[in-house]
Backbone:
């Protein structure tokens, strides 16, 4: 999946591992892994062992997010709970290094994955789930155009604690207006010489909804 700023490509631990570990290590407090079932990883060897397992999985199907300018992998994401028979798929395991967080690349990567799901694969429903306590993930889902559908209480236990799961989703019939808003936001004309956005994605999504 090739964008203007990044590539989203199948995870290859040998190719992406060292760059990912370096980028993730900028998070010295290990906050990236608070709401993940795995991590944090103290050594590169531990990380590579986990990454090899992730790279061999078909569901979740892991991808690396690579900065086109530097060719370094800065994040991970995955398609999971893949159900082609009913046209339902989820995005998850989203792990962004500090250098990727709150960047145009981060949004573009999510757009590329959504485009693959709806435009290329023809799925009907695209899901986003997270720990109900994970406010950044909840905010990201809303900003990206997913609709909140409810909370599943005591859905699982991980790292020795309960998780209530917040569910979000978007549908194929919503994709055309979402796509228009994404493309408007990602247009270089939407950014000033200082790199700051002129119009927010949220406002573009709201305007698109009003037109429809």
Residues:
């Amino acid at each position: 999946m090739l964008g203007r700023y990044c590539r989203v490509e199948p995870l290859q631990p040998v190719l992406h591992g060292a760059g990912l570990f370096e980028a993730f290590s900028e998070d010295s407090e290990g906050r990236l892994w608070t709401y993940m079932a795995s991590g944090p990883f103290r050594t590169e060897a531990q990380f590579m062992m986990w990454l090899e397992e992730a790279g061999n999985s078909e569901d979740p199907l892991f991808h690396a997010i690579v900065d086109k300018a530097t060719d370094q992998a800065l994040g991970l994401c995955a398609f999971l709970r893949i159900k082609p028979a009913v046209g339902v798929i989820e995005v998850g395991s989203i792990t962004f290094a500090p250098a990727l967080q709150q960047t145009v690349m981060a949004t573009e990567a999510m757009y590329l994955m959504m485009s693959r799901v709806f435009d290329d694969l023809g799925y009907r429903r695209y899901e986003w789930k997270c720990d109900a306590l994970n406010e950044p993930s909840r905010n990201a889902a809303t900003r990206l155009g997913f609709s909140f559908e409810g909370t599943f209480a005591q859905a699982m236990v991980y790292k020795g604690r309960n998780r209530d799961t917040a569910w979000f989703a978007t549908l194929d019939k919503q994709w055309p207006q979402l796509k228009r808003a994404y493309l408007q936001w990602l247009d270089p004309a939407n950014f000033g010489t200082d790199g700051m956005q002129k119009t927010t994605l949220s406002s573009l999504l709201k305007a698109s909804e009003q037109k429809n």
Q: What stands out?
A: The domain at 6-211 is CATH 3.40.630.30 (Aminopeptidase). The chain is about 35% helix and 30% strand. The first strand starts at residue 6 and ends at 10. The two ends are 28 Å apart (CA to CA).
